[in-house]
Write the structure tokens for this entry.
Amino acid sequence: MGKSRRTIPEELLLLALDPTTGTTAQPQTLDLGLAGAQLVELSLAGRIVPDGDRIAVVLPRPTGDPTLDHALELLRRRGSPVRAAHWIGGPRLGLRQTYLAHLERCGMVTAVPGQVCGVLPTTRYQASDDCSNAAIKQRLDTSIRTGVPPDPRTAALAALAHAVGLGKHLYPGNEGRSSRSRLRDLIRYDPLGGMVAHAVMDVQNGLPSQQGRNNAQPGAAPVPGSRQPGGRAVPTRVGAR
């Protein structure tokens, strides 16, 4: 896989990166979205295929992208198809930081060290090419504004952005309400991206799989647009700030 085009996980993280503060929006759910985005990218690369709500490896050959290849190897080691929600909700905390480091190595972001309250060290990240970042969002804007069906990559990106709750970051306030609704509707243009996005929302709600929605334990607070099961909340695995 060449680097002439950014991968969906990279684009999702860049969409979440606030150009003013250098921090990422929705840090608690972004790890889940990045894990889901890896599945979509690996599918587009012909390495995995969906099998119902499961993911099966069909070509274990490396892509050349170290972060994707690590995910592919973990999937291969499972030995049998794994439910998308189980994979996304697996104990792989820190995926956001892994991708920030990856983007820094690739020259897509620049790490800016600083301090909180003049004492605690912190790192903020600035996109190295604001024009390219603007082009990523422009693809979403075009589909939202024109209603023209997006390509599968853009549809999957929109689905994942909605699933992790980036709608209010990308289209804030009351004036952005209709755009947020249309962003959610783009999920229907890519079946795989939609399946993965629903798996991300299921994990946030504490549901172990799509097929187990009716009988699964209910979970924690959902993201906008997700289905809310009733009953006792259970913890979910999400990345720390």
